[in-house]
Amino acid sequence: MLLQHSGFGIAVTGSGSCTPQVTLDNNGLSQMVDTSDEWIVARTGIRYRRLADDRTSLCDLAAEASRRAIEMARITPTDIDLIVLATSTADDLFGSASQIQYQLGATKAVAFDLTAACSGFVFGLVTASQFIRTGIYQNVLLIGADILSRWVNWSDRGTCILFGDGAGAVVLQASETDSLLGFEIRSDGTQNSSLNLAYKAQPKELIDGVSIGQGAFHPITMNGQEIYRFAVKKVPEVIEKAMFRANISVEEIDWLLLHQANQRILDAVAQRLTVPAEKVISNLANYGNTSAASIPIALDEAVRDGKVKTGDTIAAAGFGAGLTWGAAIFKWGR
Ligand code: UT7
């Protein structure tokens, strides 16, 4: 049963993705740090990751993923009213969404960045949907894109094995029927120190008595076990809450589409929810954890492979730094 809304419904009508050409496999990583293909596959399920070289910008990846999503939705860039870019690794701290708007020629669209780490796509989906629900905008482009390789400590074997780069996008359109059935998004700053890409300031005295903090962002630090425990506990809870809001049972979920962090997390969450393995979308073996991009890349591959079909019900959930986590239940297609 669909929830009745007084405003406008949302349809997810197009998807696209783009990952860099360069591939790094586990054997390559074992030349850099004390690790092995066996360890990485057994503990994470990851085999390859795509890495952006110095000439590849976040905007380039995001714009290409967007073009593919726009084409699938059968609209043109000038139809787009709003662009939301979910990222933690913008090319420019002032924001990269406007640059993507320019690259696409989406002349009518307002564009802004949204940062919620690996939950960015789900937070972006909920944010973008509000503009459609209220009748303000008809066509929204939502992008999840990250180049975490810029910020990984490549000598830390606890983190460098996990991450990869990429971009994914979806087009959301106003619709008479509503495909966003339910959602729940959450934050908890008490565990913020478990996963950081933090700015560290050094004191700099400008003139006598006027001092500022000028420094740099430092590479990613993570307490892997803490994040693992958090994900396995909180993600099933938030999906259950979103299912409750959507008024659907777990049997009505066609696909479980989790942030692609670790196969063991995917398996544990599916088991807790009693979702069978064949309904779990997983492509992390090929891409690793691409942060905000992982859900839309996996969605796009599943759509283009013909796995996800029009009308299928998808339970998507993101989780990560902040800490942040969230779930959205939606139907694919027009
Ligand atoms: O978007 C959200 C981002 N983060 C995540 O999703 C991360 C969630 N956490 C995880 O995925 C897992 O905690 C990891 C994959 C990061 C680590 O797996 P684990 O099973 O929790 O391993 P561990 O940290 O408990 O380490 C077990 C052992 C340690 O050795 P000792 O102390 O038992 O001798 C580590 O030093 O494995 C060692 N280790 C490694 N060995 C080979 C840690 N990293 C590696 C490595 N290769 N890359």
What layout of secondary structure does this protein have?
Layout: E1 9-18, E2 23-25, H1 26-30, H2 37-44, E3 48-50, H3 58-72, E4 82-86, H4 97-104, E5 110-114, H5 120-133, E6 139-147, E7 165-175, E8 180-187, E9 195-196, E10 199-207, E11 210-217, E12 221-222, H6 224-246, E13 255-258, H7 263-273, H8 284-287, H9 294-304, E14 313-320, E15 324-331
Parallel strand pairs: 4-5, 4-6, 13-14
Antiparallel strand pairs: 1-7, 2-3, 6-7, 8-15, 9-12, 10-11, 14-15
Task: Give a summary of the structure in a few sentences.
This protein has 334 residues and is α+β, with helices and mostly antiparallel strands. It has nine helices and 15 strands. The protein has a five-stranded mixed β-sheet, sandwiched between helices. A four-stranded mixed β-sheet has the order 8-15-14-13, with helices on both faces.
Describe this structure in words.
By secondary structure, the protein is an alpha+beta fold. It folds into two domains: 9-178, 3-Layer(aba) Sandwich (Peroxisomal Thiolase, Chain A, domain 1); 182-190 and 221-331, Peroxisomal Thiolase, Chain A, domain 1 (3-Layer(aba) Sandwich). Helix content is 30%, strand content 28%. The protein contains nine helices and 15 strands. It has helices at 26-30, 37-44, 58-72, 97-104, 120-133, 224-246, 263-273, 284-287, 294-304; strands at residues 9-18, 23-25, 48-50, 82-86, 110-114, 139-147, 165-175, 180-187, 195-196, 199-207, 210-217, 221-222, 255-258, 313-320, 324-331. The protein has a five-stranded mixed beta sheet, sandwiched between helices. A four-stranded mixed beta sheet has the order 8-15-14-13, with helices on both faces. Helix 3 crosses helix 4 and helix 6 (224-246) packs parallel to helix 7 (263-273). The radius of gyration is 19 Å and the shape is globular. Mean pLDDT is 97; it is low at 1-5. The chain binds oxa(dethia)-CoA. Residues 35, 39, 43-44, 118, 157-158, 161, 222, 224-225, 227-228, 259, 261-262, 289, 320 line the site of oxa(dethia)-CoA.
